[in-house]
Specification:
Number of helices of chain A: 9
Order of helices and strands of chain A: HHHHHHHHH
Helix content of chain B: 55-70%
Helix content of chain A: over 70%
Largest sheet of chain B: none
Order of helices and strands of chain B: HHHHHHHH
Number of strands of chain B: 0
Oligomer: heterodimer
Structural class of chain B: mainly alpha
Structural class of chain A: mainly alpha
Largest sheet of chain A: none
Radius of gyration of chain A: 19 Å
Strand content of chain A: under 5%
Number of helices of chain B: 8
Shape of chain A: globular
Mean pLDDT of chain A: 79
Low-confidence stretches of chain A: 96-102, 174-189
Low-confidence stretches of chain B: 1-5, 109-116, 122-134
Number of strands of chain A: 0
Chain lengths: ~190, ~190
């Protein structure tokens, strides 16, 4: 990574090998392909800028996941703050309320909106990210701990409590029905 | 109706070897998450393929060059700001050395021209003494002393040089004070006359 050519090759290799999985994680996190594209690309731009600091302390993909999650959290905070400001304005101007969806309403893929991942998005950050890395990305608990920079036991606890919280979000259904149909029923109501 | 959500444990069920042993209900939920993640990912391919992304990332030499130029510009500006006051010195206004009556006279020379004979005769040269004859307190002498001290080979020599320079300045200061005293005496004497 010392020379320009080495740096470029390293970057090209990282993009070639990991872009698809980073894009997939971004898609699960954001729920729409447009934001996922932006987020994945920004992740690699940040990676390119910080490649010098990457000293192989972790795998390239855990480093990439770390960047992705940081960017996603930052974007989420920004959007939440923006939405709160808009809500405050709507309270002050009642005429602005209408039946039409708000301009700042997130654009989500229909498939994502119908899935359990839309419910996962409502969980606290720690549980949400642990579930994404575990069940969407299939990372080992040790890798998740490296990405989230916390002990493995904490990761297991977050995964477990995340699933419990997700289960509690679903309506109670008879034992023979699947969780998927329960989620669908809830959303169609 | 049996609410099986109440049956879930409060703590993560870990096995003796530390593995997380999810209850069946949560395991099926996890399976569903895996399935749905795969379905979502299949439905949305990245719009920008990887090769195009590589070309979008600026090359490192160019980024380095930009950074160096920016840093050098900033450093040059900083040096200029620090050095400028030392290079530029406003010219000393010799009129500031004159007494107020002389300044007024210089500002309105007509007063002197009206009755030159009746005006008190003042020897202006005595007031211009500091400008006319450079004193040992000028900057040149100070610079010389500092340079000599800077060129010293040892601390002892440097201290001696500085002490010598300080002694010279002390004596020059005393001489100048005496000169001022003499001028004031002269003025007082002329006023009495």
């Amino acid at each position: 990574m010392g020379t320009s050519t080495g740096w470029q090759k390293e970057l090209e290799r990282a993009i070639r090998e990991h872009f698809a999985r980073i894009h997939r994680a971004a898609l699960i996190l954001t729920g729409n392909p447009w934001d996922a594209d932006d987020l994945a690309q920004e992740t690699f731009l940040v990676f390119a800028r910080t490649l010098d600091r990457f000293r192989a302390r972790s795998s390239v993909y855990t480093w990439l996941y770390g960047i992705l999650l940081n960017l996603e959290r930052r974007e989420r905070r920004r959007v939440d703050m923006h939405r709160r400001k808009l809500q405050h304005l709507r309270v002050e101007i009642p005429e602005a309320n209408s039946a039409a969806p708000a301009a700042d309403a997130p654009l989500e893929a229909a498939e994502w909106r119908r899935s359990l991942w839309a419910l996962v998005a409502r969980l606290p950050d720690g549980q949400r990210l642990a579930l994404v890395l575990r069940f969407s990305e299939g990372l080992r608990y040790e890798d998740i701990a490296a990405v989230l920079e916390c002990p493995v036991g904490t990761v297991k606890s977050r995964v477990f409590h995340g699933l419990v919280a997700l289960r509690k979000m679903l309506p109670h259904v008879p034992e023979d029905s699947s969780a998927s149909s329960a989620a669908d029923t809830r959303r169609h109501e | 109706m049996n609410d099986h959500r109440q049956l879930l444990p409060d703590d993560p069920p870990l096995q003796n070897d530390g593995r997380l042993n999810l209850p069946e209900e949560l395991e099926s939920l996890a399976d569903q998450l895996r399935r749905e993640a795969s379905q979502i990912a299949e439905g949305a391919a990245p719009r920008v393929p990887a090769p195009e992304l590589v070309s979008a990332v600026p090359r490192r030499p160019l980024r380095c060059l930009t950074r160096y130029v920016a840093t050098a510009g900033l450093a040059a500006a900083l040096v200029a700001v620090i050095v400028a006051p030392w290079i530029y010195r406003p010219p000393v206004n010799s009129e500031r050395m004159l007494p107020r009556s002389e300044q007024q006279a210089a500002a309105s020379p007509i007063v002197d021209d009206v009755s030159p004979a009746s005006a008190p005769r003042v020897d202006r040269s005595v007031f211009l003494a500091p400008d006319a004859a450079p004193s040992p307190l000028d900057d040149e002498a100070l610079t010389e002393a500092l340079l000599a001290a800077g060129g010293a080979t040892s601390d002892q020599q440097r201290i001696e040089l500085l002490e010598r320079a300080l002694e010279r300045y002390r004596q020059a200061l005393i001489a100048q004070q005496q000169q001022i005293q003499q001028l004031q005496d002269e003025l007082r004497r002329r006023d009495n006359e």
